[in-house]
Amino acid sequence: MRVGDFYRPGGFGLSIEIFPPKTENGEQALQQTLDRLAKFQPAFISCTYGAGGTTRDQTLRWCQEIQDRCGVPATAHFTCVGSTREELLAWLDRASNAGVGNIMALRGDPPQGEKTFQAVDGGLKYANELVELIRAHHPDMGIGVAGYPEKHLECVDAATDLINLKRKVDAGADAVFTQLFYENENFFRFRDEYERIGITVPLVAGIMPITSFARIQRITAMCGAIFPKALSKRLEAVQDDADAQFEIGVGHAIQQCQELIDQGVPGIHLYVLNKSDACERILGELNWQPAEAKFAG
Q1: Is residue 17 among the annotated active site residues?
Q2: Domain boundaries, position 41
């Protein structure tokens, strides 16, 4: 199934994102996490692609592990960084031969130490070019792309950012997955503009539960996501209490998800940071019914 097929009218697509671990202990921990998350029968589990393509081989290996271990489709992240057109096509062939039928097509971040993205000679500069490449050479692959409810850090304004997103969709993307956000109002405003300019593919909300205040401060600083002041104050007051941070952060994610579901989002994409506790808590509180792929309310 293409990634867009998971969001058919009347259905709901739950998806989960992991990253390739760097150590043997991390690998064992992720295998245990996958075993715990598989019981929720997500529509798919995606695996990220390291900075500069450093984990491209591991991405495919973990996608195969996801499909073999969990019995659900995997989606491989894929970027333009550091690769020529020929190298990108070779990787796509490998992904296809490995049974990976869905790709999350991203431009990718500039290499560490560089402030701006520069395509290599013979490479691609924009995500819409990567979508075009995939669609032309592997027309049966499903393609997801990223959307930014609070604007991409490098974009001059929100209107231009939406135009860039529409280019990716027009190039052949099947669904849009948002960057993490913590204020639903910003997502709903983004959705209104998304629909107004004529983007019609499913818009899936990306949610990263807060389990550590220090970690989420680093992540939001890197990606430019807006962090609510009131939530920040609550977390700051308990920054020496890990359990309290977990309760506040996951409680906020539960409220976010409930409102998003009530407002008709076609799916939620959970960034779980290779741990299952927060995801299990959220889906349990929201009464997720895997067999019916819906929340029982």
Answers
A1: yes
A2: 3-287
Does the residue 261 lie in any domain?
yes
Please tell me the distance from the alpha carbon of residue 181 to that of residue 227, in angstroms, as a whole number: 8
Asked if residue 208 belongs to a domain, the reply is yes
Is 295 a domain residue?
no
Q: Convert the pLDDT of each residue in 93-132 to its tens digit.
A: 999 999 999 999 998 766 666 666 676 787 898 999 999 9
Total domains in the chain come to 1
294 assigned to some structural domain: no
- The CATH number covering residue 125 comes to 3.20.20.220
Question: Per residue in 174-195, pLDDT tens?
Answer: 999 999 999 999 999 999 999 9
Residue 106, sorted as left (phi over 0), alpha (psi -120 to 50) or beta, turns out to be beta
Q: What is the pTM of this model?
A: 0.95
Among residues 17, 132, 150, 280, which one is catalytic? 17
